[in-house]
Amino acid sequence: MATVQQVQQTEREVLNPYQIVQTQIENAAAILGLERDIVEILKKPKRVLCVTFPVKMDDGSIRVFEGYRSQHNDAIGPTKGGIRFHPDVTMDEVKALSMWMTFKCGVVSLPYGGGKGGVICDPRTLSQGEIERISRGFMEAIADIVGPDKDIPAPDVYTNPQIMSWMMDTFSRMKRSFNPGVITGKPLIVGGSKGRNEATARGCVYTIEEALKDAGRQMRGATVAIQGFGNAGRIAANLLAAQGCKIVAVSDSKGALYNPQGLDLDIVKQLKDSSTIMNYDQCYHLQRPEEILELDVDILIPAALENVITLKNVDKVKARIVAEAANGPTTPQADKVLFQKGILVIPDILANAGGVTVSYFEWVQNLMNFYWSEEEVNQKLRDVMVQSYREVRSLAHEYRTDFRTAAYMISLKRIAEAMKARGWV
Q: Which long-range contacts (CB under 8 A, 24 or more apart) does 123-127 make?
């Protein structure tokens, strides 16, 4: 069994997300014996646009913002992926996220390639009016390369349905026609899909259900720690608690809570809405927020940002199942240690694919101008997630590899087939 020390001796840990996804591609491609030309094409995005645009602030000053839109591969269909507003957005991060989106779409058989965008800003310090002007300014700046048959953005970190609505409106004004299919994650009244807001968390829960079945375990009584209590984290907590799971730990950007008997989710949600979960009873505060990753629980859900499980802490991870609701929370080197420890990692490109799956449903409904009930959306989502999980599990067992590598293998085979069919290689 490989130890952390052995992995550290043989490999330098990589934390750059762009280099991480390239490593993941190489690992899966090597097992498949994929042609070198295809691998080299897939290791880089097809197109990356860097834009700057001026925004008038509330005090009358003009501030110039910078943003990016990366389109990785469109062999199977138009590119698809979120837009995040965050002070730490970088080009390498956006490129990596667009690549993860390609493989996420591939593992759940969507007719999309991967895209991703971001604006360098901190919306927590901005007024609603300033956020609107940034949203519209960014859409104006990238409008030439997006569209219902080109690239379809969606919400991501610190963006939401209202921001998507402003962007859709801006694009529609520029094209002088109503274009709801240009973007997903919109409010229902302007072409959003029922079930979209809960889709990422719901899809993650569907994969957890399958993993527990494989382990011969019940949902009722399973203990859960959720790192990140944003949209995906809190909805996952609600859905899991409704099935009898015990939510023993949650965290946000201010700190982490732990009660082995189970937290009162109603109180946690109220505190999060008003300020921070850290106003919860102090006796349940963890001294180190990152300690939430080290708790002895059945299910650990990283639902925040990248690179939270690394060689520095992987030997302390005790969860039986790690379900990655966030993108890129585990480094490749830490992945190897988790696999050797017998911890099942449901990889991000599978575990959090519910969001892009229902985004696809929304896009289809926009194009048809015919909308489905929430029950129909959720059933279609369950069908996709369960089928995809079982395909990944089957391939992982066949090749005696981890779920992440198996998921990449499935995606790579599909994308390579499309590239060959189109005569790209």
A: 123/85, 123/158, 124/158, 127/58
Nearest-angstrom CA–CA distance, 351 and 276: 27
pLDDT tens, position by position, 196-235: 999 999 999 999 999 999 999 999 999 999 999 988 999 9
3-class state of residue 56 by DSSP: strand
Residue 193 pLDDT greater than 80, yes or no: yes
267 vs 342: CA distance, rounded Å: 35
CA gap 245, 236 in Å, rounded: 11
**Residue 185: its pLDDT value, please?**
97
Its pTM stands at 0.93
| 115 CB-contact burial (10 Å; exposed 0-12 / middle 13-18 / buried 19+) | buried
CA-CA-CA-CA torsion sign (126, 153, 157, 372): positive
User: Rounded distance, CA 361 to CA 146, Å?
Assistant: 18
CA–CA gap between residue 238 and residue 221 (Å, rounded): 14
Q: How far apart are the first and last CA of the chain?
A: 39
Contact predicate 352/104, CB 8 Å: yes
3-state secondary structure of 63: strand
The whole-angstrom separation of Cα 246 and Cα 225 is 9
Which residues on neighbouring strands pair with residue 246, listed in sequence order? Answer: 223
Q: Give the mean pLDDT of 5-34.
A: 82
Strand duo 246-252 + 255-258: pairing: antiparallel
Which pLDDT does position 9 carry in this prediction?
47
At 412 the pLDDT is: 97
Task: Report the catalytic residues.
Answer: 116
pLDDT at position 140: 98
3 state SS of 83: strand
Please give the angle made by the CA atoms of 256, 262 and 264, to the nearest 5 degrees. Answer: 80
| pLDDT one-digit tens code per residue, 130-188 | 999 999 999 999 999 999 999 999 999 899 999 999 999 999 999 999 999 999 999 99
Can you read off the two tokens belonging to residue 41? 């094409």
